[in-house]
Amino acid sequence: MYGSYDHSWMFGGGMLLGGLWMIILWGIPLLLAIALLKYLFVKTESKHGQNQPSAPASALDILDNAYARGDISREEYLQKRDDIKGKG
Fold first, then answer.
1. 3-state secondary structure of 45
2. Which DSSP category does 51 fall into?
3. How far apart are CA 17 and CA 78, in angstroms?
4. Fewer CB within 10 Å, N- or C-terminus of the chain?
C-alpha cells in the first residue's frame, strides 16, 4: 500500500544496539553489586584485622576505677583526686 515494508532495521544494525543495551542494563547493576560486596568485606576485614591500642587511661580514670573496685577508701580517693587535680 505505502511501498515495501522492510524489516532490515530489526535484524541489521538494530541488533547491535540491542546487544549494547543489554550489556549496559545487566552490567551496571552487576558492577554496583560487586562494588557493594567489596566495600562490605573490606570494611569488615579492616575492623577485625587491625588491633589498634586504645588510648591510655588518664590518672583520674585509673583512680576512679580503683575506687569503684573498692581498692581504696573514700578518704584516700578524695585526697588522691585533689592531688591529681592540683587542689592540694
1. helix
2. -
3. 81
4. N
Q: Give the C-alpha separation, 11 to 26, whole Å.
A: 22
d(CA 4, CA 8): 11
φ, ψ of residue 4 in degrees (nearest 5): -75, 140
Q: What is the pLDDT of residues 43-78, one digit of tens each?
A: 765 555 556 667 778 899 999 999 999 999 999 999
Burial grade of 77 (CB within 10 A; 0-12, 13-18, 19 or more)? middle
- 69: enclosing H helix or E strand: helix 59-69
How distant, in Å, are the alpha carbons of 6, 26, 29, 49, 62 from that of 19? Answer: 21, 11, 16, 43, 68
